[in-house]
């Protein structure tokens, strides 16, 4: 098979790495790719938003399967464009990807179908949001309705913070048009867990659990980021909790989408909060999580291309997903200043020490190749993933591996997976 992967981040590198291990695949392309993906794929200089050029490339090069990585093209309808051309593509159509593209849509869906989530209200005028905040109890959560690179969520502990947040999101457009509408919801407490699932429209098969670390600084302080590291599995995601979620959240969501005429085929990401009252949905995503993918796929035993094809063909019920009985931790190496201002173009050293390893891996996010070698080209630069018999072993291994990499202005959190040690 010839496979095309659309995207350029750590998630897409992890997908390319996994696809390259499929016996069904001979050739891999990635558009636009990055400095690490080039190890497995021929990188094509086509933006993820240029649907026509991407479809033309797939058509002209007889691509057998295209895998869409990022949220933006999915929400904008890239899958519809490919399907209209008769091209085989993995990912939800535009009318299903709205489950991530609009938080107000997803909240209304959960309310309508009794899927457990936080209480909320939706606003399209700042003055109405201000009035609502006058009678709220705090803390409270503000969410920009649209896509905001994982950063459009503000936790406000005081009314003054919430008022300033409404101004930043709705009036100053800190997250662009994503803030045209605002969701204000109750603040939930508990352990967060991420669960990714394959879907074929009627059958849903969940992967092993993971936990992300969104804040930029140790101790979950600082600004929200796209993710500073993950571990898998979550020790807090018990068989009892999994059973509850399978009955009242996972299948219920897939059935709700089908009932709404929005059949979901692709990856459905469940961001969960394990509250005292039981699991609640924090958010949905319509694609692989980043950096959750970097700890989930290394533990997956299946040929991922077979699973992708089963989702497209509606035969996912015949697939038995299997994962290694171990653990994995991913530590993101970022550029100092991220998610704010940061510099690019610094040479990365130590990458050669990750070649042909089966105990730790390096997934490129913000990198590119230059005449000097691989250089930094983004806020989140690399994801260093290591496996271990236990979560503690995996954490120790990941931090040791992270020290093998050097570049100017390198920054990382030092407490990824530290919650493990509290058990």
From TrEMBL:
Pathway: Purine metabolism; IMP biosynthesis via de novo pathway; N(1)-(5-phospho-D-ribosyl)glycinamide from 5-phospho-alpha-D-ribose 1-diphosphate: step 2/2. PROSITE patterns: ATP_GRASP, GARS. Coiled coil: none annotated. It comes from the Bacteria. GO terms for molecular function: ATP binding; metal ion binding; phosphoribosylamine-glycine ligase activity. Keywords: ATP-binding, Ligase, Manganese, Metal-binding, Nucleotide-binding, Purine biosynthesis. Its EC number is 6.3.4.13. One of its GO terms (biological process) is 'de novo' IMP biosynthetic process. Residues 107-313 form the ATP-grasp domain. Pfam families: GARS_A (PF01071), GARS_C (PF02843), GARS_N (PF02844). It is an enzyme of class 6 (ligase). It catalyses: 5-phospho-beta-D-ribosylamine + glycine + ATP = N(1)-(5-phospho-beta-D-ribosyl)glycinamide + ADP + phosphate + H(+). Its cofactor is Mn(2+); Mg(2+). HAMAP family: GARS. Belongs to the GARS family. This is Phosphoribosylamine--glycine ligase. The gene is purD.
């Amino acid at each position: 098979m010839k496979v095309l992967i659309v995207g350029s981040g750590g998630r897409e590198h992890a997908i390319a790495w996994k696809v390259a291990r499929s016996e069904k695949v001979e050739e891999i392309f990635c558009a636009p790719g990055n400095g690490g993906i080039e190890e497995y794929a021929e990188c094509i200089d086509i933006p993820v938003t240029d649907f026509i050029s991407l479809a033309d490339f797939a058509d002209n090069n007889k691509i057998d399967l295209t895998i869409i990585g990022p949220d933006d093209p999915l929400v904008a309808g890239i899958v519809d464009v490919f399907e209209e051309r008769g091209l085989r593509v993995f990912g939800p159509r535009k009318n299903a990807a709205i489950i991530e593209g609009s938080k107000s849509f997803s909240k209304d869906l959960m309310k309508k179908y009794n899927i457990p989530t936080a209480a909320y209200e939706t606003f399209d005028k700042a003055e109405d949001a201000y009035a609502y905040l006058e009678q709220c109890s705090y803390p409270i959560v503000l969410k920009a309705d649209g896509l905001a690179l994982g950063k459009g969520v503000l936790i406000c502990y005081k009314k003054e913070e919430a008022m300033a947040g409404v101004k930043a999101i709705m009036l100053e457009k800190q997250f662009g048009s994503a803030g045209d509408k605002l969701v204000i919801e109750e603040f939930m407490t508990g352990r967060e867990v991420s669960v990714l699932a394959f879907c074929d429209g009627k059958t849903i098969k969940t992967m092993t659990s993971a936990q992300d670390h969104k804040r930029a600084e140790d101790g979950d302080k600082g600004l929200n980021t796209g993710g500073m590291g993950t571990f898998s599995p979550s020790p807090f995601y018990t068989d009892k909790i999994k059973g509850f979620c399978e009955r009242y959240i996972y299948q219920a969501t897939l059935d709700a989408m089908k009932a709404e005429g929005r059949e979901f085929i692709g990856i459905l990401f469940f961001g969960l909060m394990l509250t005292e009252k039981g699991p609640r949905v924090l958010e949905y995503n319509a694609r692989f999580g980043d950096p959750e993918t970097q700890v989930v796929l290394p533990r997956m035993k299946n040929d991922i291309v077979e699973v992708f094809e089963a989702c497209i063909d509606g035969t996912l019920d015949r697939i038995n997903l299997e994962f290694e009985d171990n653990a994995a931790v991913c530590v993101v190496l970022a550029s100092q200043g991220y998610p704010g201002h940061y510099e690019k173009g610094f040479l990365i050293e130590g990458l050669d020490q990750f070649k042909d390893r089966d105990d730790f891996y390096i997934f490129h996010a913000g990198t590119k190749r230059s005449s000097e070698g691989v250089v930094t080209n983004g806020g989140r630069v690399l994801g260093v993933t290591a496996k271990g018999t236990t979560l503690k072993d995996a954490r120790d291994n990941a931090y040791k591996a992270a020290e093998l990499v050097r570049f100017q202005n390198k920054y990382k959190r030092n407490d990824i997976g530290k919650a493990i040690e509290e058990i």
